[in-house]
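Severity: low
Component: inverse-folding endpoint
Summary: output formatting inconsistent between runs
Steps to reproduce: submit the following structure tokens with default settings.
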């Protein structure tokens, strides 16, 4: 039976990781996979994570199961982190949360929930969106469609075109939005645009599914969740997929959660029963370790303070690199304007070069990025930024 299977091409981001590892050139620059890196090119374990982890392990007395919905304290702390303490939907008991295997697990649980509620649901994703959104959301059988989003001419959002498309969707369409630090473009919605979008969602009865994987790495913890807080306050139903991979640096611990805001506590309880049933049917129960660490950090004022400082450090490094990169590129390639990179947010930007140029950067200069020219800004450092800018100048000349 299995002989019938044909070999699949490797995932673009995972394939790039393997190519980078195999490259032995000391000048190689990894701007591929979206993990934070420090000045030395390391993806560090945050100090608050180390301390909280020791505390958690020191107290642990069993490895028995927690629950299908995961760590209740973690779920609650994550709802407060994303929504902000005192948010009206928390007070109204309209939020139901389930721990998930990273942001990816949360996205899949959300998609399965929409399928359970309405099998013909169509999910609308931005053009472009993170490559893995497509299999994660459509893998359970939901149909996916696209709405315009990124404008390569300005490095910003094609907002009118986006509104125009969303304004034609039937009621109960699901629209996937990136809360902030849009992956792969770095182009975010402004607060005014979020407000305008809210009017459209109300008018057309659309259901927002908001992916937040970089809270605190764009502008700030509250600012990066602005759209979520606004939509949850004003709409009857919202789903939010949260990842702790990047802002807590817990990548391999697969830590995240799905929050679902329903119209009433009773509807919320029914929704949660489905969330739990779906999780049970896929993997039964989530891993404990990452969620226990995050719960410890958010619940302890000392660890929390340290986390916020470390997060601010990562954010400032990325923002600083954006400005540095624009300066280096302006010197190396004066004929081209890369100024848009400084106005974008989060780890990613499109360099805006074509596939042969991306390949030339990889093959001739050992600089790795995905074929769409997405670069992970955090992969740059004082040691490689000049080399990178010169390499870009060279491929643009050829
Ligand atoms: C990325 O976009 O590179 C990250 O979210 C890592 C991944 O799994 O693709």
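Observed output (run 2 of 3):
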């Amino acid at each position: 039976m299995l002989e019938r299977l044909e070999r699949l091409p490797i995932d673009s981001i995972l394939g790039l990781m393997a190519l980078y590892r195999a490259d032995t050139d000391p000048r190689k620059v990894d701007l591929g996979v979206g993990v934070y890196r420090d000045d030395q090119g390391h993806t560090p374990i945050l100090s608050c994570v180390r301390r909280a982890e020791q505390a958690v392990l020191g107290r642990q007395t069993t490895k028995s199961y927690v629950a299908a919905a995961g760590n209740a304290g973690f779920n609650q702390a994550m709802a407060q982190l994303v929504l902000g303490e005192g948010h009206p939907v928390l007070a109204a008991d309209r939020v139901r949360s389930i721990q998930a295997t990273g942001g990816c697990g949360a996205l899949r649980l959300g998609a399965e929930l929409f399928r359970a509620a309405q099998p013909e649901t169509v999910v609308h994703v931005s053009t472009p969106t993170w490559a893995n959104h497509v299999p994660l959301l459509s893998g359970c059988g939901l149909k996916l469609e696209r709405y315009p989003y990124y404008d390569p001419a300005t490095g910003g959002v094609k907002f009118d075109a986006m509104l125009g498309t969303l304004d034609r969707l039937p009621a109960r369409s699901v629209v996937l939005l990136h809360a902030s630090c849009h992956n792969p473009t770095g182009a975010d919605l402004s607060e005014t645009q979020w407000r305008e979008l809210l009017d459209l969602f109300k008018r057309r009865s659309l259901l927002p599914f908001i992916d937040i994987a970089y809270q605190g790495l764009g502008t700030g913890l509250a600012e990066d969740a602005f759209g979520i807080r606004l939509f949850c306050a004003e709409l009857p139903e919202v789903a939010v997929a949260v990842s702790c991979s990047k802002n807590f640096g817990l990548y391999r611990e697969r830590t995240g959660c799905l929050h679902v805001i329903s119209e009433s506590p009773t509807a919320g309880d029914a929704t949660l029963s489905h969330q739990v049933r779906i999780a049970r049917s896929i993997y039964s129960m989530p891993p404990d370790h990452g969620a226990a660490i995050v719960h410890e950090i958010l619940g302890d004022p000392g660890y929390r303070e340290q986390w916020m400082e470390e997060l601010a450090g990562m954010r400032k490094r990325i923002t600083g690199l954006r400005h540095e990169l624009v300066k280096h590129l302006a010197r190396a390639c004066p004929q081209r304007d890369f100024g848009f990179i400084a106005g974008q947010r989060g780890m990613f930007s499109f360099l805006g070069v074509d596939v042969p140029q991306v390949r030339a950067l990889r093959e001739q200069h050992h600089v790795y990025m995905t074929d769409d020219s997405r670069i992970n800004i955090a992969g740059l450092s004082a040691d490689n930024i000049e080399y990178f800018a010169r390499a870009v100048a060279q491929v643009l000349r050829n």
